[in-house]
Amino acid sequence: MKKITLLGLFFFGGISIYAQDNNKWTIEECVNYALENNISIKQSELDTKLADIDKSQATMAFLPSLNANTSYNINTGANVNPATNQFENQTFRSASGGVNTGVNLFSGLQNWKALQRSKINIIASQYQLDKMKDDISIFVANAFVQILFNKEQIKVLEAQNKITKENLDRTNELVEAGVLPKGDMLEIKATDATQIQQIIAAENDLFISKIGLAQLLKIEDYKTFDIAEVDYGLFADTILEEDASTIIAKAKEEVYDVKVAESNLELAAKDLELSKTQYYPQLSAFMGYSTRWSSTNLDFITGQEMPFLDQLSTFDGTSFGLQLSVPIFNGLSVRNNVRRSQVNVERSEYLLEQANLDLESQVYQAYNDAKNAKKSYEAANQTAEARKLAFEYAQERYTVGLTNAFDFSQASINFENAQSDVVRTKYEYIFKIKVLEFYFGIPIDQINPN
Predict the structure, then answer these.
(1) Are 1 and 359 in contact (CB under 8 A)?
(2) Is the pLDDT of residue 138 over 90?
(3) In Å, how far are 76, 242, 294, 298, 300 from 90, measured between CA atoms?
């Protein structure tokens, strides 16, 4: 299973976003653009093309081979006349040509097993491509949601700073009226300055996150690049009613990491079968036709050079037969190749077993994370509500001079932190639920409304 970064999967699969204007990208547009332009995906697509080529080559291996050859030579000194097979110590010209065909009759079913392997390899390469697309989609979605998170964080900070500025104005009036000491105004000013610094830092984080997504999409216009925003709701948590073992069983049918491991094991087993075919004798049939010409071949009647076409018909010949190759001793290379293949099969079995164990661990982890994320979100809401009441109470007391600016600032900071925790735990809760649904096999573009 791909390593899913925080919040990415939910925003990729769970929400349909529509751009507010042409300058803002939706999550679908970002993901689709990345799927069409990402280099890693293009490389995986090339692997599937190579797998198709391997299958074509394995299929063509069943057909007979057909080759033609020709040569033209100028010979000086003592050379064998290719037409008469006699030594001639003179300069002469010669030519030869032929056609040969051959067919493999038996080689331990090597061609058949190679064809089977090529079919398995096509499936394996497609699994790898699908996994790569999922990885890239989540990577893009994570960059997308980071922008959304930074934007919402800025809204929280700006809202809190607006309250601080209002309190600063009221404090200034009370200080001028002699109701509050000047130190209270300075304390509020310090709080205001700190919040402005936080807003600047958040805006910088937002800009950097935009650059990150733009670079991922290979978009050079960083300044105008932006994403569409919507108000995100919560998923229903009915998935938590499912048993973890049920989710694991579904995940083994849906997750590509396990499928990749299974296909790799099949490939290793087929490679073992192919290596064993080298133990068998190989039987092939062949047939050939050849002819030749030489400038020194004379006609017995006229005493002149024999015509070219006459020589081709006179000095031609055919050959056909069977060829048997029996492996007897070759430095134990075949045996060692078989042993290597056996080791690869065992390694692939371990990898498949590990993939299943990892999947079980990931599902159990996701199951517990989803439950805990829900509890954290509920607790954060309760804390935020309490902090809000505490802040309002502190504000009322500060207005009438019953508390100092420092205590009021602390109440304001606590309320701000509580609001940030609500934002953070909300997105984590949504993300964890969607991850668990993904393991369960629910399509990532399907929304389960609360």
Answers:
(1) yes
(2) no
(3) 6, 94, 12, 14, 20
How far is 233 from 14, CA to CA, in rounded Å?
10
Nearest to 31 by CA among 229, 257, 213, 207: 213
Sign of CA dihedral 182, 184, 187, 189: negative
Whole-number pLDDT of residue 4? 42
Q: What is the pLDDT of residue 11?
A: 45
DSSP 8-class letter at 4: P
| HEC per residue, 250-313 | HHHHHCHHHHHHHHHHHHHHHHHHHHHHHHCCEEEEEEEEEEEEECCCECCCCCCECCHHHHHH
CA distance 187 to 198: 17
Q: In which residue are the tokens 């999922």 written?
A: 134
* Residue 79 pLDDT: 79
Complete domains list, the chain, with CATH: 8-440 (1.20.1600.10)
> Taking a C-beta distance cutoff of 8 angstroms, is the pair 355, 257 a contact?
yes
pLDDT digits (tens, 9 = 90+) for 82-135: 767 787 778 888 899 999 999 999 988 899 999 999 999 999 999 999 888 877
At 18 the pLDDT is 40
In this prediction the pTM is: 0.76
